[in-house]
Amino acid sequence: MRPTVEDRLRDILEAIVEIEALLAGYDFARFTADKTSRMATERYLEVICEAARR
Asked: Model pTM greater than 0.90?
């Protein structure tokens, strides 16, 4: 079964919540120095973009 609009919106919201949790307490310097966090954030943004595209 294909994902519904609600499923995609839920995916977007979950990715946003994960980014917020991942980066809580970070400043720009810490974020740019932490490759793992940058890569995880990038992946969550990909999820958001893919869900929004469809």
From this structure: no
